[in-house]
């Protein structure tokens, strides 16, 4: 008997199909735009020079001659690819140097390099966790974390973004599940740029006997005196069990790393399927990443870290003065604020966000657009991000374009969310989530809900 269901039907009948068709007709699709040169503060994109405010090239190292030379040297020495997995013929001295460098940078016993950041989360979570364990995730965690949790077949318990009271309640429930417990959170959340309250999270983990893993993808090379990320900044490096980072942000390359205890890292080497059964990263990516790590670890590193955060503050102030509603920097329990390179503007409506994006794009700026389910319903954002290599003159030009676009846009489409509205920062002074009625992240407390949310690129 033939099946009556075509597995391809979902590709032809999904809920966003009509929206995509309409957006394409109006040239409003903000994704898959074609870059025609290197990712610099200004880029060539689809036949025009545009200010780049949509890159994760936080330190601007993709154009650094030392990083480029590192890639070229590796290409000359090893060729275009290694054509094998790390487990077999795909390990080089570049891998070993990177692993030693990351272990030293993070202050851990060991580290393991993966081909991509996504695979690092997939490989660590899918291996360390098993069906008898429980994994607790912030509902704002990156899609790769959720993928790793689902791959592991551990019991997934999610808590509302940033809500320490919900984390405590979830840990209480997980204690009765009968297996090991791992809490995994982003150090800096990728869409809104808010910072996890790691001192309070680590305290809760210690009280309940849970392990803690922190994804430093958007914090490495940005936060902390050494640039080692949110754990360093918040003084909890010795209280976090595993740390993950990517090469595709501050390190101007592609790859991922997990750092932690030597026995755990060794277990990943021999048991992690995403590590063992994928090709090793191309030599040029490894050479570029190693050169970028050396720059970060040099005396020049802190200067770059300070410069990108100064640019983020500058852009945040400018957009706020123009009347945009900008997500506030995270306010910690002691009242201090943490700035990150992510400077999101709240738009709310998906269609308005697409229209505003197109107006900015036509005006000469590229930004990223985050629509539901990457953000909560009615929480569409323009995700701006800055580089250390932006100068204030370039950012002033961008702000002028924002001002002109805002005036024309509001005259035609009505007002945008105004500065000074209801707070949308990640955390309050008490370290708990502030009220975010119109910007709540989706509830991921069931696997089905988590599965729906994970399919949208964060």
Question: What is this entry, summarized?
Answer:
With 458 residues, the chain is α/β, with parallel strands linked by helices. It has 2 domains: 160 residues, Aspartate Aminotransferase, domain 1 (Alpha-Beta Complex), CATH 3.90.1150.10; 198 residues, Type I PLP-dependent aspartate aminotransferase-like (Major domain) (Aspartate Aminotransferase, domain 2, 3-Layer(aba) Sandwich), CATH 3.40.640. The chain has 16 helices and 14 strands.
What are the main properties of this structure?
Aspartate Aminotransferase, domain 2; Aspartate Aminotransferase, domain 1; alpha/beta; 15% strand; 5-stranded mixed β-sheet; 7-stranded mixed β-sheet; single chain; 458 residues; 2 domains; globular
CATH class of the largest domain: Alpha Beta
Helix content: 40-55%
Order of helices and strands: HHEEHHEHEHEHEHEHEEHHHHEEEHEEHH
Low-confidence regions: 423-458
In CATH, the architecture of the largest domain is: 3-Layer(aba) Sandwich
Quaternary structure of the protein: single chain
Net shape: globular
Q: In what order do the strands lie side by side in the largest sheet? A: 3-9-8-7-6-4-5
Determine the mean pLDDT: 91
Quantity of strands, as a count: 14
Structural class: alpha/beta
> Mind summarizing the main beta sheet?
7 strands, mixed
- CATH topology assignment of the largest domain: Aspartate Aminotransferase, domain 2
**CA-to-CA gap between the ends?**
41 Å
- The CATH H-level homologous superfamily of the largest domain: Type I PLP-dependent aspartate aminotransferase-like (Major domain)
Helix tally?
16
Question: What fraction strand?
Answer: 15-25%
Q: How many individual domains?
A: 2
Q: What gyration radius follows from the Cα positions, in whole Å? A: 22 Å
